[in-house]
Amino acid sequence: MVQARNIRSATEPTPDLAMTDRALYRIELVALLALMLASATASAGITFARASQSSSTQSQSGIELYEKADFPQAVKVLKTALKQDKNNVALWHYLGLAYEGTGEFDDARKAHEKAAKAGESLITVELSKSIGPNYLEQLRKMAPDIGFASSSAIRHMQLTPESSKAKHVEAYDRAGYLSYVEKLSRDTDASFGEFALNSDGIKKARILSKPEPQYTDAARKNQITGTVILRAIFGADGNVHAVIPIRLLPDGLTDRAYAAVRQIRFEPAIKDGHPVAVAVQIEYNFNLY
Question: 112 and 47, same structural domain?
Answer without folding.
Answer: yes
